[in-house]
Sequence to fold (116 residues):
Amino acid sequence: MRARNRVASRERRRRILRQTKGYWGRKKNVFRHAHNQLQKGLTYAYAHRRRKKRDFRRLWITRLNAAVRVHGLSYSQFIHKLKQAGIALNRKMLADLAVTQPEAFSAIVAQVQPAA
Fold:
């Protein structure tokens, strides 16, 4: 790559200020505040990409628990009976079925319940 006559420190500051576009107040246009906020934002982004997976799993479990209690089961009993029956549907798919297609979900519960 050819050498360009551009001040590196100014370019670094401009890059950080471009990344903080949309932040509120000084955090978008004062370099010191923008740099601190960008570091914090990137840290949160990294942590919350992992956190999101936990949050969705909790949501699916909560939805499943509510859906199977209508049928007289608890969540843990339902999951245990699913495994015994050899039905390999994950929590995401089961929760989606419970919300969007309750009759299909009821059929799965009925298939599992006689095993008790």
